[in-house]
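Mods, move this if it's the wrong board.
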Amino acid sequence: MLIGFSVGNYKSFKDTVTFTMVASAIASEDKRLDENNVFRIDAQLSLLKSAAIYGANASGKSNLVAAINFMKSFVLNSSKEGQISEPIDVDRFRLSTQTEKEPSFFEIVFRLDGKIYRYGFEVDTEQVISEWLFYKQKTREVKLFERELDTFSKLTDTFKEGKGVTDKTRNNALFLSVVAQFNGKIAQKILVWFNGLNLISGLNDLGYRTYTIRSFENNQHKDDILGFVKKLDLGIEDIQIEKTPINEVLLPNILPEEFRNLIRSHEIDVKAIKTLHRKYNDEEQPISNEIFDLNDNESEGTKKLFSLAGPLLDTLKAGKILLIDELDARFHPLITCAIISLFNSKETNPNNAQLIFTTHDTNLLSNKLFRKDQIWFTEKYRQGATHLYSLVEYKISKDASLEKDYIRGKYGAIPFIGDLSRLIGEINE
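Not the wrong board. Structure tokens:
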């Protein structure tokens, strides 16, 4: 479970900002939101099941997702041999001289096996500047390790697995990743947690279709995916996955021989996705099914919905964490709302999966769908730096329209559009 994430001096984030999934001590007008959108960890901590991030174009919404993705990728890959001489691909804030020589900061707080961990690091393009790992024991934090450049403070008995590994850690690799490589149990569990942190682009969703196809071909998930698609009123009665033979003669000459061998041995299959729609007679009675090809005959929204069905349902079933950049792209607002409602529900989300997404869809800004602490904003401040803040910071009347107030600029995080009529007049001159 994700509790919080902080980032600084990365892309559009100059100063350190913090995003949190901790539920605030507020009460919603609609009590069902407090019952369904929040789950309790213990007497002191409750977490949110979903969060929406709003902001103008180029305000930094996607950069928050990119920051989490960088942290995940670096944790999972920094210890690999191929990274030995490679620079660290971190993109610092470039619009201020103050940050030119400063490291980028990343820290994440999460719950794993009943414990709350706080892990983070600072890096520049050449090396890891600092790194730390703590866990919470009752009311106090316990240090597992701390690192400053190549100097490690005394490793605690709780993290014995790190002893003897410090001298094997390169200056451009994370100690946590190296310890996991040497079979450290705590480190390996944390890397598994990072690996299960799923990040998806709502604009480039085609890459997730293979995942959904595999889930569909597994009989355990076929009915779930089909039921999900049918309930969203797309007119689809059934889905079929067909293997399409590949004519080797039609393959381009530059294709590597290894790839050709995989095709010959049928280790690579091209799958055609067919959707079945009812066909009616003059009396509007169903008489047969018409077969459509997903790519050729269905809408862009339907294609995206199928591609994301596997990751969405897997996240809900396993109680995972899913981050989607531009969730609403190519979706009708009611479909986006339906997906969010799956997470904001005790019935459809009994395992407390978490959904975090960026969006421009103001139709979702409703106190019937979200608590105030579930709504976040990004806004560019001085020097082009991103500020991140939550709606819970505002005092809002009971009868306020969140959507209208947002569009009017009450909460910021909207584009400031100049006089386009003057521009058009200049073009026409």
